[in-house]
Specification:
The complex is a heterodimer of chains A (about 300) and B (about 425).
Chain A (H helix, E strand, L loop, with lengths): L9 H10 L3 E10 L2 E11 L4 E5 L6 H9 L6 E6 L8 H4 L2 E4 L11 H11 L5 H11 L15 H13 L5 E5 L7 H16 L3 E6 L2 H7 L2 E6 L2 E6 L1 H9 L2 E7 L2 E7 L2 H10 L3 E7 L3 H9 L6
Parallel strand pairs in A: 3-7, 3-8, 5-6, 6-7
Antiparallel strand pairs in A: 1-2, 1-4, 8-9, 10-11, 10-12
Chain B lengths: L1 H16 L1 H22 L8 E7 L4 H12 L3 E5 L3 H9 L5 E5 L3 H6 L7 E7 L7 H13 L1 H7 L1 H17 L5 H19 L3 H5 L13 E7 L10 H31 L1 H7 L4 H31 L6 H25 L3 H18 L11 H6 L4 H15 L3 H31 L1
Parallel strand pairs in B: 1-2, 1-3, 4-5
Antiparallel strand pairs in B: 3-4
Helix pairs in contact in B: 1-13, 2-11, 2-13, 8-9, 11-13, 11-14, 11-15, 11-17, 13-14, 14-17, 14-18, 17-18
The chains are: A alpha/beta (about 300), B alpha/beta (about 425).
């Protein structure tokens, strides 16, 4: 469903989608006064992938998202959206949807009114149908006519996400979409993200929870102090920076730890030698990757 | 345009769902208008009634009545040289009524037995109608108090009875017998009055109106309608209430703009294919519409509830529109200056309050001391009050309304541009 005012340019733009990364940031620099938020950051997000920006609070993730939306001008570097140019151009920008870290809803409006208002701004045809679809997608159709001020944190987060999808954008930027929600709501949001990905949306997902990044992201970029430290699939990053796994074997009441690149083979070898009463494998994860790349823990 | 209307519709919906904003935008200004209407109308206090007194007669009776008026605890009397000066004092709001003791007062008093009476003119401020009855009653009482004194004064008494005798003799309706009886009555009365001492005269009663006898005639009339004079206190209080209503809009919408910026909703809106100017125009339109609504509401209240008559309806519409426009620009400026919601709600509304105080938003400009009147030129409230008052009750010439209208227009445009620029700078940070 393309907004009425966009249909004329739709075909030519679709041709570009196939040949260009959905989002390309090149050598971005952004400083606020003397504080450098982003320094020489580059990334490319491919069509249909869930791209995770993983880093601690203050790493520069939200600034990167701001620059990707075109709302924040970089001091240096360039941004290209869908091969159409800079998202500072409103016609280019409307191909992306943003769910900011803050809950950007009007508490005195109902869930439906919030979405209909945004649909009006985009000049959507069939806005009511689209809004009903979205409310069903985020499982708020039964609460559609209630004011959002009374919603739980998880419900607000889901509606915040739905608001980013009103105009059916090609690229969806989700800035810490699970911040401050309970585990159950977090799982629903993660499922929602996978659902969107399965429907062909390209998603940029910022988080400081490595479990989330590992669970839903096709590729992850590790960000710290405004720099992109590395980009790859979770497996690639672990292979490059995670180091070996640790196999802990219990035998005759004593524990033995073995560091190995092939933990499965090591477990098999331990069992073959007999007397094993317990075994645990500690695989390298994104935490190990972050530790290896920055020398500190992601949670510090 | 659709985007602008959508933003305006959303903002109006938000405003009407916020009880605080509705109170300060609609209910509070109505309370202000009504409250000040009653206060200006003199129905709210127990202070002395101010009278501008003119004594056109050189007679003893007029001087005595003037003294009694000055001594009376109900009145604060200021002397005026002429009838016009006294009326001017009423027009200026310095006196509730002008009391004129005419040159004929003594002649009228002397002719009380010949169908005449002591005439007193009283010209009352129409905004002080509530006090008219009291003034009239008091004048009657004090005038009656003069008759025993006149009787006790041999010269005045002789003049009075001489007039009585002349009146009887010249009458064509009386028979010779009746004329004789009348002359005898006059002689007996004169003899009785000679026996009165001033002390007994002071203690005499004042009820002499029995039997259709009307020796005191207080002619009460309202100040003639004139350009530049309020017809009721609500004429004065309604524009003040209207401006407070507009200020309520300004406070609410300036805060809402800051909230959009600080809570991130602005970022989301700006992702839509609308420019910053679209967004601001939408917000401004909502503020403008609300400002017009509150003004319309107060005008309806004044006309339907307090029988105010609008002097120049078309120019009032122009004045209200420009006031709404100017204050919408002011809302943008305040939003641009304020960084946080707390600033907008605290400093922003506080600044509005100060501007209202010095701009005639609480006390009418003509009641203000000269220093504040000079300061008021810096307040948009002054220009809004003038733009509304002029066509509402002052019936000001159109040429005199151009200055406030132009200043409000400049405030609107300037406020919008400067506010937009400041807002853009804040967003860039």
């Amino acid at each position: 469903m393309f907004p009425r005012r966009m249909r004329g340019a739709h075909h030519a733009e679709c041709v570009r989608y196939a040949t260009n990364p959905v989002l390309a940031l090149r050598d971005i620099r952004k400083a606020f006064g003397s504080t450098v938020a982003v320094e020489g950051l580059s990334l490319e997000v491919r069509q249909g992938e869930v791209f995770g920006l993983l880093g601690p609070n203050g790493a520069g993730k939200s600034t990167t998202i701001g620059i990707a939306t075109g709302l924040l001008a970089p001091d240096a570097g360039s941004v290209d959206l869908l091969g159409l140019g800079s998202p500072t151009n409103p016609r280019v920008r409307m191909h992306l949807g943003l769910a900011p870290q803050e809950i950007t809803l009007y508490g005195e409006l109902t869930a439906r009114e919030n979405l209909l208002f945004l649909a009006d701004l985009y000049g959507l045809a069939g806005a009511k149908t689209r809004v009903d679809e979205l409310l069903a997608l985020v499982e708020l159709d039964t609460r559609a006519d209630e004011r959002t001020a009374g919603f739980s944190g998880g419900m607000k987060r889901r509606l915040n996400l739905a608001a980013a999808l009103v105009h059916d954008p090609q690229l969806v930027l989700l800035d810490e979409p699970t911040a401050g929600v309970d585990p159950q709501s977090r799982n629903r949001i993660l499922e929602l993200v996978r659902t969107l990905a399965s429907r062909g949306k390209t998603i940029v997902y910022t988080t400081h929870y490595m479990e989330e990044a590992a669970k839903i992201c096709d590729r992850v970029g590790i960000v710290d102090h405004g720099r992109m430290l590395d980009v790859g699939t979770v497996a690639e990053l672990i292979a490059r920076h995670g180091g070996n796994s640790t196999v802990t074997v219990e035998r005759d009441g004593a524990e033995v730890r073995v560091v190995t690149a092939d933990p499965v083979a090591e477990v098999a070898r331990q069992f073959a030698s007999g007397g094993v009463t317990g075994v645990r494998i500690d695989r390298a994860d994104l935490e190990s990757v972050f530790l290896a790349l920055t020398g500190r823990s992601l949670r510090e | 345009m659709k985007a602008i209307l959508s933003i305006a519709k959303k903002d109006l919906r938000l405003m009407f769902r916020d009880k605080g904003d509705v109170f300060f935008t609609f209910v509070f200004p109505m309370l202000m208008a009504v409250l000040f209407g009653f206060v200006f109308g003199g129905q709210g206090g127990g202070s002395k009634i101010t009278l501008a007194l003119v004594n056109e007669s050189g007679s003893k009776v007029a001087a005595s009545l003037a003294d009694d008026l000055a001594k009376d605890e109900s009145f604060e009397v200021t002397r005026a040289e002429t009838r016009d000066a006294a009326i001017a004092a009423v027009r200026a709001g310095k006196a509730a009524a002008a009391v004129v003791l005419p040159a004929s007062i003594e002649e009228g008093a002397g002719a009380m037995f010949g169908g005449g009476g002591m005439e007193i003119d009283c010209i009352i401020d129409p905004t002080r109608r509530a006090e008219a009855g009291l003034i009239q009653g008091k004048l009657n009482e004090l005038a009656f108090r003069q008759f025993p004194r006149m009787m006790a004064d041999p010269a005045q008494s002789k003049r009075m009875f001489d007039q009585m005798r002349a009146s009887i003799e010249s009458s064509k309706d009386l028979s010779p017998g009746q004329k004789l009886a009348g002359a005898a009555l006059a002689a007996a009365g004169e003899s009785f009055s000679r026996s009165l001492s001033p002390e007994t005269a002071e203690g005499a009663g004042t009820d002499a109106s029995a039997g259709g006898f009307s020796p005191v005639q207080v002619k009460l009339e309202e100040l003639p309608k004139r350009k530049g004079g309020p017809r009721s206190s609500f004429d004065v209080s309604t524009p003040v209430g209207m401006v407070w209503g507009i200020a309520g809009c300004v406070g609410a919408f300036a805060a809402s703009l800051v909230v959009e910026r600080s809570r991130g909703t602005l970022a989301r809106l700006r992702l839509a294919p609308i420019s910053r100017m679209h967004f601001l125009a939408g917000k401004g339109l909502a503020c403008f519409i609300t400002a017009l609504l509150v003004q319309a509401l107060l005008i309806m209240l004044a006309v339907a509830g307090f029988r105010c008559a609008i002097a120049q309806p078309a120019m009032l519409a122009v004045g209200c529109t420009m006031a709404a426009f100017g204050f919408t620009g002011l809302a943008m400026l305040i939003a641009g200056l304020c960084k946080t919601e707390a600033e907008a709600n605290g400093a922003g509304r506080g600044a509005l309050l100060v501007l209202a105080l010095i701009g005639g938003g609480t006390i009418p400009l003509f009641f203000m001391p000269p220093v504040l009147q000079t300061l008021s030129y810096a307040s948009p409230f002054r220009w809004a009050v003038l733009a509304i008052e002029g066509p509402f009750w002052r019936d000001t010439a159109v040429s005199d309304q151009i200055a406030p209208l132009a200043i409000l227009c400049a405030i609107g445009i300037g406020g919008f541009l400067v506010g937009a620029r400041l807002g853009a700078l804040r967003e860039a940070r």
